[in-house]
Amino acid sequence: MHYEQLGVTEGDFYNRNFEKGAREDTMILNLGPQHPATHGVLRVIVELDGEYVIRAEPVLGYLHRMHEKMGEVKTLSQFIPNTGRIDYGHALGWNWAFVGAVERLAGFEVPERAQYIRVITTEINRITSHLLWWGAFTLDLGAITPIMYAFDDREHLLDILQMPTGSRLTHSSFRIGGVCTDLSEKFIETVRDFIPKMRERLPMYRDLVTDNVILRKRLEGVGVMDADMCRRYGVTGPVARGSGLAYDVRQAEHFPIYEGLDWQVAVRTEGDSMARYLVRMDEMEQSLNIIEQALAALPAGPVLMKNAPKVLWKAPKGESYFAVEGARGKIGVHLVSNGGEFAYKVKLRSPCFSNLSAYAEAARGTILADAVAILGSLDLVIPEIDR
Amino acid sequence: MTFLAAIPSELIHIVIGMVAIMAFVGIHVLVLVYAERKGAGHIQRRPGPFEVGPHGILQPLADAGKLIGKQLFTPTNADPILFWMAPVLAVFPVLLLFVPMPFGPVVTVQEVNLGLLLILAFAGIGVLSTMLAGWASNNKFGLLGAARTVSQSVAYEIPLLLAVLCIAFQKGSLNLSTIVEGQGSWPWQWNIVTQPLAFLIFLVCAFAETNRAPFDLPEAESELTAGFHTEYSGMGFGMFFMAEYANMVVVSGVCTALFLGGWKGPGIDGVWWFMIKVYALLALFIWVRWTYPRVRFDQLLNINWKWLIPLATLNLLGTVFLMKVF
Amino acid sequence: MSMIRKVLEPIGDLWSLVVGLRITGRNFTRPQVTVHYPREQVPTDLTDSYRGPIALVPHPRDATKSKCTACMICVGACPSQCITVVKAPAPVITPEQEKTFQEAEARGEEVERPVAPREPVIWINDFSLCSLCGMCVEACPPRCLTFSHELNAVGTSRDAFLHNLLIPYPGSLKPTPEQVQKLQER
Ligand code: SF4
Ligand code: SF4
Q1: Do A141 and B45 touch (CB under 8 A)?
Q2: A213/chain C closest Cα distance in angstroms
Q3: Residue nearest to atom 6 of ligand 1 (CA)
Q4: Mind listing the pLDDT tens digit of every residue in chain A (387 residues)?
Q5: Ligand 2 geometric centre to CA of B172 (Å)
Q6: CA nearest neighbour of B84 among B137, B125, B141
């Protein structure tokens, strides 16, 4: 029965539309836009039969900031700060995707030291992002303490990351043709000190949370997404790797620096929330490996290309696409330029958007608490979904 | 003056006792709120409340002042009578639960022969208040929370009863003071030694009955925002809060009396032993809350039906068997 | 075999709970990491890499003036359009001066006509719009912008965030009333 036909004017378009397919004996519940589990302004409309989720439908757009449009009215280098704000969790990944697209378009050669710096800072940023997710996810599951421990480490990492990028959250330190600041001696030393400390912390995380029977029972077998489903929705990142798809842009696109380092793509085959969880935990370790090796191999040299673009630089005509492996999946930037200072079109491929699309299917038939756990295990950053 | 003499001394006794209980509960809620926040803080390596008074010691008072000062807000379409009855119903039965509590050799408000039964009976009313709150607030989160409470509390009452019965059988009494009397001063003379399984079951059920983490499903924050008290503001919420902490004290008190030798301890028996044990249990409550994730609803019931009830039943049968044999 | 595992598993599961309690218990006794903000501050070696509101660098020869040459490049580079720079006006040449100049030129002498001083009279950064991206700092040709390390940029009104960067430089030129008025109209 249509909601409006019943003479009820409550709810908005989404609710009323949702009501159409609802069964008589079910309840429509709005999780969000302000809800503790959505970590932002995502809204999920669920149809509940008791505690069971019959349908779950995410509603987007509460945090739409028109980043793609802004890309058309700002010069290419002016758009870099925007990229740091698309995903507050992994800002440098977006930085890299965008400057990479511009560099590919213009055929710029980035100095080697700058490439190493990009690798190091991006990986540190990946760890901070995963720590943020880890804390928030355990919070979703009702454990309040882990987030504090995670933030303890995260703050130290942010202190470190602040040295080359100057900011603690919305980093935007990559420039077209390099990076804006060189790594200081102090940075290198602090990171060297921090890596073993972080390695010691990870077993503590494992004992406190990963091995905890309550958590394992809550995640194992919950929200199973098989590889086929991931492909259908374009799911990437740790979510896809948790389903046995060993796809990592860093490896698949043969990123120059990563190629020479010894690290593995973390993959699990179970496809449940626990697998996604474990993939991220493994990735933190791998990121530490990458940072350690990259620091050891850091070459000397300039950090910015010699004739890096000036303010009124005009990009050549054409299009380019560049993707990097973000903390949440494949970050892609498709840049179309008609030869002006501004891009003609900037298309941002957000991993969270694709990952969220799979949510409706994954959450169907689960218990409400599981639906929340699945939502958390996708590691969504809402501003990134809406862009 | 003659009419004073007409008042039965029993009544005066009860009235004084009730007043004392209220003061006791009030103070303990404040202390517990502080202890919980401090404990949580230190576990998470932060100071917890720190600004109000030295080391934030006045923070609970400030919180109470804030809660009292807030506007009471009845949501539209809520049933106002039921809505406001619920918080009251949450607090007052809890106060009654302190009546048969054996704080010390003579420090009991009223010796009740069926003290244990009284506590179990009145504890059941708490469920009613939660259910009313969830139902009357006309909120879907509240409703879900209420539904969870009912199934949770009803389910966990069974193993709780079975665990308590073991002790009652063993000691042949439902009077808490008698049960305490039956235990010795030294830890190995306490009931926890003869009934370790019952103690564990009782403890788990206590967590569930008081809606404490990891069994805090009715108010599961990340799923149901605040569950049954989503719509309550000000002191309405404050009352639920008080009831939760008072319930914790009751449960710890009963647990102490049943399993940990009550007021008895090495050296001089007295109220202090009782309080020390109660505080130790409360600390455990707080510690556990800030350590574990929340269980899922079906798991919660599974733990109950598949583990606790069979175990409790076996334990009870075993106890009865052993008592018959020896 | 599976029977034994079935029995052992719950024990292991329960043990994981004890391990969890032990970890939180150990952390309970560890020192706290909180910095009690108003009474304590984070160590300065953290703040000196922090990007605070932008500031002008003093002129190498005259510390009462800023190094800015009012070239306006930063204005164009800023993605948030939060920089307002107004150049010093060209000095007004009176007819008599003009005459003397022309006479001198007629005599074939080198004349130095007064040109607009290459200096800003107004340099305002709207900090409420600034994204601290550093585009201006990098774009400035004479490298006369830096980030300050001021952590506590607070204010009670929007206008409080219109940072006038020339305030530390008393020697800089003053704007003419018309320029101020034009700015206020905006
Ligand atoms: S830091 Fe960026 S936003 Fe701020 S004034 Fe400079 S260019 Fe503009
Ligand atoms: S600050 Fe630098 S870029 Fe901006 S006007 Fe002055 S000299 Fe030019």
Answers
A1: no
A2: 5
A3: C136
A4: 444 455 555 666 676 666 666 677 777 788 877 777 777 788 888 888 878 888 888 888 888 888 888 888 888 888 888 888 888 888 888 888 888 888 888 888 888 888 888 888 888 998 999 998 888 888 888 888 888 888 888 888 888 888 888 788 888 888 888 888 888 888 888 888 888 888 888 888 888 888 888 888 888 888 888 888 888 888 888 888 888 888 888 878 777 888 888 888 888 888 888 888 888 888 888 888 888 888 888 888 888 887 777 777 787 888 889 888 888 888 888 988 888 788 888 888 888 888 888 888 888 888 888 888 888 888 888 888 887
A5: 91
A6: B137
Chains that touch C (3 or more CB pairs under 8 A): A, B
Q: Which of C69, C81, C84, C124 to mutate to test the pocket of ligand 2 (most atoms within 8 A of CB)?
A: C69
Tell whether domain A79-310 is in CATH 1.10.645.10: yes
For residue A33, is the peptide bond before it cis, meaning its omega torsion is within 30 degrees of 0? yes
d(CA C133, CA C154): 19
How far away, in angstroms, is C152 Cα from ligand 1 center? Answer: 18
Of C82, C138, C147, C163, best ligand 1 pocket probe by most atoms within 8 Å of the beta carbon: C82
Which residues are registered as beta bridge partners of A29? A46
pTM of the model: 0.85
Write down the domain spans for chain A: 1-63+352-387, 79-310
Domain C49-90+117-185 has CATH 3.90.226.10: no
Contact C33 B45 (CB under 8 A): yes
Query: What does the alpha-carbon distance between residue C42 and residue B67 come to, in Å, rounded to a whole number?
Result: 34
How many Å lie between the centroid of ligand 2 and the Cα of residue C174?
Answer: 17
Answer whether B213 touches A (CB < 8 Å).
yes
CATH T-level fold of A1-63+352-387: Enolase-like; domain 1 (3.30.390)
Separation of alpha carbons B281 and B275, rounded Å? 10
H/E segment holding residue A138: helix A112-140
- Select from A276, A194, A294, A286 the least CA-distant residue to A237: A276
